[in-house]
Every structure is written in C-alpha cells, then in structure tokens.
Specification:
Largest sheet: 3 strands, mixed
Order of helices and strands: EEHEEHHHEHHEEEHHHEHEH
Distance between the termini: 28 Å
Number of helices: 11
Amino acid sequence: MVEYEYSRLYFKADEIEPLKENDSFIIKTPQGTFKFTKADFYREFSNVIKTKSYQEGRLYHYPTTPKRALQFLISDQSVVYKQPEKRMPKLDLVGEGIRMKIKEIGTLWRNSPNNPPLDIEVLRNWDHLIDEWIDDDTMPLIIRKETRKKGQAFTHPCGREIIVSDNTVAIWVFSNVLRGKVFTLDEIRELLKHNELPIMFASTKENKEKAKYTKCLDKHSLPGWKVCHIQPIGFNTKKGITDLDISVIKEHFKKYVNPNNMFVLPKEIGDLGEIDEFIEQQKQ
C-alpha cells in the first residue's frame, strides 16, 4: 500500500498511477488521514487527472481540503478533522467579481507567450535530483527561515547540516531550469564544498562575520522577474531551526527548491504571485 505525508491533500501521479484499480493509497495531512483506492480517486477526482499539473508536473494539491474528500477520512487518522467553529461571516471586501477577474488574469499569464516555457524532462530530472538530495543524510538541507541568518549553517539534532538562505536558491534553480541545466548530486556536493552554490542575494557585514556559505546570486539572478511558489513554503511556527522536526525541514526543502513548485512573473505584477486565485491557475 502506498502511503505518504504532506501539508495538504496532495496527489502524486508517480505514486498513484502504477497502482491497480482496487489498490489503496493513504495521504496523511494535518487535516487528517485520507485513504483512497485508485478507483475512488479516478471517480471522485477526475478533474485532477486531466490537469496539466498532474499529467506533466506529476503532482496536484488543493489549497484547502475539498468537501468531497471528507468521505475518505479514516477513523485512525493521525489528526482528527475538526469542523470550523461557527463565527460571524467574514466580510469579503474583494468580492466574487474581482476574484473571477484575478482568475482570468492568472489564465492569461499561464497561456501568455511571454511566460517562459519549461522543459518537462528538465523538471522531471530536477524532481528526481531533489528526492535524491533529501534521501542522502550527508547532504545539507537549505531552508528559507530566519533569513537574517542567511549563509549560516546549523547542525540539527539528527546530525544533518541545515543552511539558511533567502529566496536565492529557488531563483538559482529556476535560472538553471530556464537554461535546461540539471546537476548531479555529486556536482551539488562539490558546489557546496567549494562555496559555489549561491545562498544569498548580497552579502552584508554580518554575513561575512557569521556565514559559512557566502556565494551571492550574481549572474544567476533573473532581472525583471519574480520567482513565486505554488504551494506555500512558510513554516508557520516560531520554533527555532534546530527545534524543527527533520521531516518538516525535508518537506519545506522539497517545496522551496523544486522548480515544479515555481512559476515566474514580471516584477511589475509580482504581487499577483501571492494571491490564491491567481496561483491556482498556474497549476493547470
């Protein structure tokens, strides 16, 4: 039986598609544990199967758990699903009309000739590289948290090195994807060893005094573009870096550096990359 954990209801084609019709898969989320057969998934989520995100990106997730998924919650879920408390309806200052226009703009950008095309094979190879990176305990993991400490390295209680960055590593990855460049794990290891993997936009006096990794983005920057994430990468916790569970760090790292979880916008409209209605259209 296939089983995996994620911060949201997240369908992974590479895990699901090899299954037979009556084989089951389990997804553990903070909202609860869901169990589906492949037949259930194809019946109830046929719209997901047809999306470009699932077909080509090999993954699809929901920002919030859809109601039709609740029938698949199992009784021994690790976190019990709780109905939201009844409160006074929140006033929608934006309005449905504007939200629909934002969705339309999202679709226009997704299909725009100015939206840089990405090679599916390159994306798939990066996905495999990042999985290999996560599975190798000798490799440092890079996180976007407490960015004032960018370039500094911490030893997690499990013994793994954790490096702090800003959004630099995501930009570096996307820059290489646009050039069709994929690295091997050994190449990444060498870049880190020789302080050649960009970790920060620019160095400060504090960085020079405390940072272990000081390589700046330089030629790998993407002038005029903003790199955005589809699935949010925030930790939503005040815990310190070494107090975080290593599984949480791995999940963050996967979303933070995986180009399958990224898209770009011209900087002049970059704030749209923070709006759910716009982001949703970039998954198609």
